[in-house]
């Protein structure tokens, strides 16, 4: 299922090299990105992959989009968004789509870290447990009495102890298992944040399954060799002088890993 078929960047670029976001997309002006079920935006720091994701999210108007502002360049950002364009995809019967599925969203790495910290806060945990009792039918007075009880304090201690046993990486995996659902479009900015290499591969395999069997579509910004090598994806190399696709093993960061371990190969033998 392709919810988003393509995205065309504005071809208007200011002659001022400091204008945002024009300077980010100067080498990609007017280019069209064609999307697969999983599409990767690869690039080094400063390549524009996160900015491009946010531009797409702003143009689509989906949850999680951040306002594109920088040092008084609001008018230029607004113009760039307005002059960019996109086409939606089609369903399994090749009928055109006229809107994105509800629940589609843009998830940034900082959003993920915020959610991890939020679930570890005592006040949020307390409110969640008390709200759960109200939902189950207890009266407000009963819930207030429960809040002061030894049993409630004991339950809080047990849950908090259990949460402290999980690393940020484990919490990240829990987050994705809860939030990545079938039948949605997801824009993900460096989802590998806080994940160990095995968990990066596990997450990539989860996205492969969602895209292949459960009608999800992903556009992902990453430079993780483990994610790149596991995803069944079209990869755009934003480090290239002109926008172009590449195989994962051709990319500079992957080649760097290869050269590093090849240099120390004797230590593994």
Automatic annotation (TrEMBL):
Q: Which superkingdom is the protein from? A: Bacteria
Specify the protein's topology with respect to the membrane: Peripheral membrane protein
Give the GO cellular component terms, alphabetically: plasma membrane
What is this protein's record name? Answer: ATP-binding cassette domain-containing protein
The family database entries (PANTHER family) matched by this protein are listed as: IRON(3+)-HYDROXAMATE IMPORT ATP-BINDING PROTEIN FHUC
InterPro entries this protein is in?
Answer: AAA+_ATPase (IPR003593), ATPase_AAA_core (IPR003959), P-loop_NTPase (IPR027417), Siderophore_ABC-ATPase (IPR051535)
SUPFAM superfamilies according to UniProt: P-loop containing nucleoside triphosphate hydrolases
Native source species? Paenibacillus lautus (Bacillus lautus)
User: Does the UniProt entry include the keyword Zinc-finger?
Assistant: no
* Keyword Transport belongs to the record: yes
Protein's GO biological process: iron ion transport
The main location class comes to membrane
What keywords does the record list, in alphabetical order?
Answer: ATP-binding, Cell membrane, Ion transport, Iron, Iron transport, Membrane, Nucleotide-binding, Transport
Q: Where is the AAA+ ATPase domain?
A: 35-247
Where located? Cell membrane
> One GO molecular-function annotation for this sequence?
ATP hydrolysis activity
């Amino acid at each position: 299922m392709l919810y988003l078929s393509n995205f065309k960047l504005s071809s208007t670029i200011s002659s001022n090299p400091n204008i945002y976001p024009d300077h980010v997309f100067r080498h990609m002006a007017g280019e069209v990105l064609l999307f697969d079920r999983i599409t990767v935006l690869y690039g080094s720091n400063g390549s524009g992959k996160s900015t491009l994701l946010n531009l797409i999210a702003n143009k689509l108007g989906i949850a999680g989009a951040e306002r594109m502002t920088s040092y008084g360049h609001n008018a230029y950002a607004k113009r760039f968004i307005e002059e960019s364009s996109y086409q939606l995809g089609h369903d399994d019967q090749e009928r055109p789509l006229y809107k994105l599925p509800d629940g589609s969203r843009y998830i940034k790495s900082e959003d993920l870290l915020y959610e991890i910290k939020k679930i570890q806060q005592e006040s949020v945990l307390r409110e969640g447990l008390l709200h759960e009792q109200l939902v189950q039918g207890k009266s407000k007075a009963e819930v207030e009495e429960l809040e002061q009880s030894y049993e409630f304090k004991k339950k809080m201690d047990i849950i908090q102890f259990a949460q402290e046993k999980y690393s940020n990486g484990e919490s990240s995996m829990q987050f994705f298992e809860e939030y990545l659902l079938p039948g949605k479009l997801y824009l993900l900015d460096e989802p590998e944040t806080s994940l160990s290499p095995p968990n990066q591969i596990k997450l990539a395999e989860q996205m492969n399954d969602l895209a292949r069997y459960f009608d999800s579509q992903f556009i992902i910004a990453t430079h993780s060799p483990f994610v790149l090598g596991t995803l069944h994806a079209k990869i755009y190399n934003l480090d290239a002088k002109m926008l172009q696709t590449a195989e994962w093993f051709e990319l500079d960061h992957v080649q760097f890993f290869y050269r590093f371990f090849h240099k120390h190969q004797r230590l593994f033998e």
